[in-house]
Design goal:
Layout (H helix, E strand, L loop, with lengths): L1 E3 L11 E6 L5 E7 L4 E7 L1 H4 L1 H5 L6 E5 L6 E6 L5 E6 L3 E8 L20 E9 L5 E6 L5 E6 L3 E6 L6 E6 L5 E6 L5 E6 L3 E6 L5 E5 L16 E2 L5 E9 L2 E8 L7 E4 L5 E6 L4 E4 L6 E4 L1 E6 L4 E5 L7 E3 L7 E6 L5 E6 L4 E5 L2 H4 L1 E2 L2 H12 L3 H12 L23 H4 L8 E2 L5 E2 L24 E5 L5 E5 L37 E2 L12 H4 L10 H8 L14 H9 L3 E2 L29 E6 L2 E12 L2 E11 L5 E9 L3 E6 L3 E6 L3 E6 L10 E2 L4 E6 L5 E6 L3 E6 L4 E7 L1 H4 L4 E6 L5 E5 L4 E5 L4 E6 L3 H9 L13 H6 L19 H21 L2 H18 L2 H12 L14 H5 L2 E2 L2 E2 H12 L6 H17 L10
Antiparallel strand pairs: 1-30, 2-3, 3-4, 4-5, 6-7, 7-8, 8-9, 10-11, 11-12, 12-13, 14-15, 15-16, 16-17, 18-19, 19-20, 20-21, 22-25, 23-24, 23-31, 25-26, 26-27, 28-29, 29-30, 32-33, 34-35, 36-37, 38-39, 39-40, 40-41, 42-43, 43-44, 44-45, 46-47, 47-48, 48-49, 50-51, 51-52, 52-53, 54-55
Helix pairs in contact: 11-13, 13-14, 14-17, 15-18, 17-18
Subcellular location: Nucleus
Pfam family, one: Hira
Family: Belongs to the WD repeat HIR1 family.
Length: about 950
């Protein structure tokens, strides 16, 4: 630590009452008494910090001097962005100074470097008149939204820093001179200290007095000229100026948690006049344990002319300096880099203390500080103040009056009517004991968010408020919580389309399987995902009771570990028949589970797959001939009485490694690289025997059973249109496998392949682009996007929501909750979230998923409303308006490219635009953009055929 007292910093031997370092650290300001008026001087910091700069006559010392105040200046404070300087004095005025390029209307050079001329020019841009007495202290709020001034008129005035000289509120309640004011770093409170022996905490939401603290100040006798209190940068501690404990002067520590007053800083012999916390939260390794410590640092000055430096991690002061001046210490200021402290005294001098990182520690980054704020207070300081500013904004559009802005709800992927449907209430049992589901909602039934009922909370919860204003929510029941998603949305919102009772696996099931035309396929997660602890069966208690009664020999449901078994679950949707109590289940031998290796593995034992009433059974090496061993493939039909009737039988000359069954066809793949396509009713071949370069490891049918696909060991992918007997896609997965292998293959009804690799990444192939599209990987933007936008449990409905279903199979873990508390606290997170959403939209367009396209456009509107910029919002809305909005010819008939520009995947762009605008309504700051584009949208709707024309095309 170094101490330096520059004797050239003075106010003509008059008192210096205040000092403050500019956020850049290049200059500092002092305020006090001038010759015949109040004086504000802006000094160059370089000569204070460097002996060489001090000795160099070409380096100016005084940058500007302003003698505009009519009486002594008691306080000077720089704004957080460094653009403005505020000064308050005995003339009852607060002056706001701003740097100008010319010397018109600014300060006057008086002495120091620069030959009697000001090096910089600072002009008073606003004079704030409102106090009836001397102004003693000033404080800028976080983000410079407001500035508070306190006075001997017993009031605190909060000024609007965006609209000087507008007064936001006058805080009244003190019965004595108010001598100090400070802001909570997250903008929820402002605190003041007065001669009336009290400290008051005021709420910024309604400017009411939230807490009055008197006990530590009851013994205080004669007070000081100023009482500069300070709030710690983490918001946890408020430290007052003059307090008393056992007859001795102290600086009182007030804890935000319960506003407890059981600790104080003791040691000064006379009243404490000023306290100033270091601007940053500091960190360092503990000397003995090497554990990382986070703490705050503060300086305390008193009338005994001594200065003490404290760390909240230590019980004793870091350093104490006695008799630093000849008079009381009146003000303190830390530099933004955290290693320089300036202090001033009533004797007209200042002192500079320079520390090192080893002595004080290292400041936390802004990103880490915002994450800390989010974890402790629920909101980033930036977001909190923006919301407060928006609360005071005048509402110009009536559409914004009835919209709740307190907690905007993100859009949900599953339509609301499906979310609220009970998991069992919509099911019934028919006469044969079958579990029957109602027909699922059609995917095309997409409604604008404006027409949907307001979302209702899924969970019942108890909400309480603590003494410091924080909300605490105690959930009564949180079903099926997902580790990486918010608990309040972590319920399974999908009606299970197949419920298995006692099934062994999809290949050796003891229960017959029947396909219903209206059902959606359900996907079973691979073993890698089950290892993360995600539940594989999401049944409520009623279903579990049905699954266990009556007691039979059915075994618990298991998830297939073989890739062929996973694929059968993925591509052959099924509902399961519950056996009657008097029926005897057929016992079959369970084969040991085989885990995917990327190699073709011969099917062991007896295995079958079914579609509807038809079942295809496979048994390898069952027929011995002089030519070699043959494998049997048998087609059977299961009657309503559970009787099997053989339809056909054929033999294959090579062991079978995988097979799949569709509504009309079955595909059988052998170890000798051959592939056979047969009719499941007759067993006759549909194709001649095909041969690829290596044996197939996965095979699948599309949900409409018109397309069949295989993936081989070497990564060759083939998709055929079976009715047309033609190849639809021929490509290779080798370019994306890079040491991994395919574990899941799905073929959409439009011939779009989706694959999941063993490393967790997933892809889809686009024939138009002749390239693989990345669906999921360990990419940080994708990880952040999937976690940040996970508003419900993993979606497992491959037909209606293919993108979300495939993305739910990544085995990548997200950051821990306590280190990723705020999903948009850092500057990169907003741009990353929007980039991810826009990529999701493009994928949805390529894979033709209209339900998901609408969801991601709605999510884009939600994110833009909360964190977007005006430029980005206009870009998105202009794109949705389309090229046609540039034409004012109302008689023109839209056709060709212009007509295509009006919709995406059959969804009107006007409908998508309505969703985005509905989200903008939750933020008053976007009301003018909302009104502007709503007018354009109304014009387009009128031009296209009237107001009542439906937007869905």
């Amino acid at each position: 630590m170094k101490i330096f007292q520059p004797n050239w910093v003075h106010h003509d031997e008059k008192s210096i009452f205040s000092i403050d370092i500019h956020p850049s650290g290049e200059r500092f300001a002092t305020g006090g008494q001038g010759c015949d008026s109040g004086r504000v001087v802006i000094w160059n910091m370089a000569p204070v910090l460097s002996e060489q700069a001090e000795a160099n006559k070409s380096v100016p010392r005084v940058l500007c001097q302003m003698d505009n105040h009519l009486a002594c200046v008691n306080c000077v404070r720089w704004s957080g962005n460094g653009l403005m300087l505020a000064s308050g004095g005995d003339d009852k005025l607060v002056m706001i100074w701003k740097k100008t390029l010319s010397g018109s209307g600014g300060g006057i050079g008086a002495f120091g470097g620069g030959g009697g001329k000001s090096v910089e020019h600072w002009r008073c841009i606003s004079t704030l008149r409102g106090h009836a007495g001397d102004v003693l202290d000033l404080a800028w709020s976080p983000q410079d939204r407001w500035i508070a001034s306190c006075s001997v008129d017993n009031t605190i005035i909060v000024w609007d820093a965006q609209q000087f000289p507008k007064i936001v509120h006058v805080l009244k309640g003190h019965t004595g001179l108010v001598k100090g004011v400070t802001w909570d770093p997250v903008g929820k409170f402002v605190a003041s200290q007065s001669d009336d022996r009290s400290l008051k905490v005021w709420k910024t939401t309604d400017w009411s007095c939230f807490k009055t603290i008197t006990e530590p100040f009851e013994e205080c006798g004669g007070t000081t000229h100023i009482l500069r209190l300070s709030w710690s940068p983490d918001g946890q501690y408020l430290v007052s100026a003059h307090a008393m404990n056992g007859g001795g002067p102290t600086a009182q520590i007030i804890e935000r948690d319960g506003w407890k007053c059981d600790k104080d800083f003791v040691g000064h012999r006379k009243a404490v006049t000023c306290v100033r916390f270091h601007n940053s939260i500091l960190k360092r390794s503990a000397p003995k344990t090497n554990k990382l410590q986070q703490y705050c640092c503060l300086a305390v000055g008193a009338r005994d002319r001594s200065l003490s430096i404290w760390l909240t991690a230590l019980q004793r002061p870091l350093v104490v300096i006695h008799d630093l001046f000849q008079d009381s210490i009146l003000d303190l200021s830390w530099s933004c880099d955290g290693y320089t402290l300036l202090t001033c005294s009533g004797d007209g001098h200042i002192a500079c203390l320079q520390f090192t990182a080893q002595e004080l520690g290292t400041p936390l980054s802004e990103e880490d500080k915002n994450i800390l704020y989010q974890r402790m207070y629920g909101k980033n300081a930036n977001i909190d103040l923006t919301a407060q500013a928006e609360k005071e904004m005048i509402v110009e559009n009536s559409d914004f009056l009835n919209v709740s802005k307190s907690n905007p709800l993100p859009p949900t992927l599953i339509p609301q009517q499906q979310q609220q449907q009970p998991q069992l209430g919509g099911m019934r049992q028919d006469g044969a004991g079958k579990v029957v589901q109602p027909a699922s909602q059609p995917a095309a039934a997409i409604k604008s968010s404006s027409s949907l009922a307001a979302p209702t909370p899924i969970l019942k919860q108890i909400e309480t408020k603590t003494a410091d204003g924080k909300r605490r929510i105690t959930p009564m029941f949180i079903p099926l919580n997902d580790d990486n998603g918010p608990a309040s949305h972590a319920t399974n919102n999908i009606m299970p389309s197949s419920i298995e009772f006692g099934s062994k696996s999809s290949e050796t099931s003891t229960v017959e399987i029947k396909q219903r035309a209206h059902e959606e396929p359900t996907i079973i997660p691979p073993p890698a995902e089950r290892a993360t602890g995600e539940p594989t069966s999401k049944l409520d208690n009623r279903l579990k009771k049905m699954a266990t009664a009556p007691p039979q020999k059915a075994e618990p449901m298991t998830v297939p570990t073989d890739p062929q078994q996973q694929q059968q679950q993925l591509s052959a949707p099924s509902s399961t028949i519950q056996p009657a109590a008097n029926q005897k289940l057929m016992d079959r031998t369970r084969q040991p589970a085989t885990y995917p290796t990327g190699k073709a593995t011969v099917i062991q034992g007896h295995s079958f797959k079914a579609f509807g009433e038809v079942r295809v059974q496979v048994q390898n090496n069952t027929v011995k001939t002089s030519y070699g061993t043959l494998s049997r493939v048998v087609g059977v039909v299961v009657t309503a009485q559970r009787v099997e009737r053989k339809l056909w039988e054929t033999v294959v000359g090579s062991p079978i490694v995988c097979f799949a069954v569709g509504a009309k066809y079955a595909i059988v793949c052998s170890q000798d690289h051959t592939i056979r396509m047969v009719d499941i009713k007759t067993g006759t071949p549909v194709f001649p025997v095909l041969s690829l370069t290596s044996p197939a490891v996965l095979s699948a049918f599309s949900s409409n059973s018109q397309l069949a696909g295989v993936v081989t060991e070497s990564g060759i992918l083939r998709i055929w249109s079976v009715p047309e007997k033609a190849v639809l896609l021929s490509t290779s997965c080798a370019e994306i496998m890079s040491g991994s292998f395919v574990t899941i293959l799905h073929v959409s009804d439009k011939g779009m392949p989706f694959i999941v690799l063993s490393n967790g990444s997933s892809y889809s192939y686009c024939r138009k682009l002749d390239s693989w599209m990345l669906i999921n990987s360990s990419d940080p933007v994708i990880r952040h996007g999937l976690i940040g936008n996970k508003t419900n449990a993993p979606v497992r409905n491959i037909k209606t929501y293919p993108l979300s279903t495939i993305q739910s199979y990544g085995s990548f873990s997200g950051p821990k909750t306590n280190s990723f508390a705020e999903l948009h606290s850092a500057s990169w997170q907003t741009s990353a979230a929007i980039a991810f959403i826009e990529n999701q939209i493009k994928i949805c367009e390529m894979i033709a998923s209209p339900a998901e396209l609408k969801y991601w456009y709605s999510m884009l509107g939600f994110q833009l409303a909360l964190n977007g910029s005006e430029e980005k919002i206009r870009q998105v809305l202009d794109d949705l308006l389309g090229a046609s909005h540039n034409s004012l010819d109302t008689c023109r008939t839209l056709a060709g490219d212009d007509a295509d520009d009006r919709s995406v995947l059959g969804i009107s762009k006007q409908l998508l635009m309505e969703d985005v605008l509905n989200h903008l309504k939750t933020q008053t700051k976007w009301q003018r953009i909302y009104t502007e584009y709503l007018d354009q949208l109304k014009f387009l709707k009128e031009r296209d055929g009237g107001r009542d024309k439906p937007l869905m095309e």
